[in-house]
Amino acid sequence: MVFDVSDTPGSSRALAGLGDRIRRLRASRGLDQGELAARAELDVSHLINIEQGEMTPALDVLARLATALDVGLSQLFTDGRPGPAAMVLRGNEVPTVDTDGMALQVLTPRAVIPGLYAARYRISPTSEGVRPVKHEGHDWLYVLSGQLHVDFDQGATTLRAGDSVSFSARVPHRLSALGGAPAEFLAVGATLLASPRGEV
């Protein structure tokens, strides 16, 4: 079965349900809003706005929430239930969410494969860059244009169009654009890749 997202009412809101998924994950872990906010280093009012869908959190906030909930980042964007065998997502159905110098397009609004997500990012060149993040799973980045600088705990690399990098997302990483121009890249993340001991 092929599922065309454009046939679904309200499908233009790729991030719809994000706040509700965070609320359900929090409740399933027996946490109240104050406890989750403290674990994620957020103001309670900020968390309430996210859960109510009144605010779209920045990437570093999403990563902190995922870590505080002990889930992979992809689980904040998918409901974890297998979807249809194939899914079509039309370009005009993918909204861009701008937060703190970064534009994000979530390309997997529903899970075809639970634990897997894909997104397109555009980072504006700023002196600060994007705050370091870490979360469960593995990430793969592929640069479409510009220069993407990736800082890790023990090293850094600069990627240009056509370059890619893969790494454990548990390693703190900071992304920034170099050369005075935005960096645009694809990111694919997975919490499926387990070691023989069952670790991600």
From TrEMBL:
Single GO MF descriptor: DNA binding
Name the UniProt record assigns to this protein: Transcriptional regulator, XRE family with cupin sensor
Organism: Saccharopolyspora kobensis
Residue ranges constituting the HTH cro/C1-type domain according to the UniProt record: 22-76
Keywords: DNA-binding
Keyword DNA-binding appears in the UniProt entry: yes
Sections of the chain in a coiled coil: none
Pfam entry (one): Cupin_2
GO CC term (a single one): cytosol
Annotated signal sequence range: none
Cross-referenced PROSITE patterns: HTH_CROC1
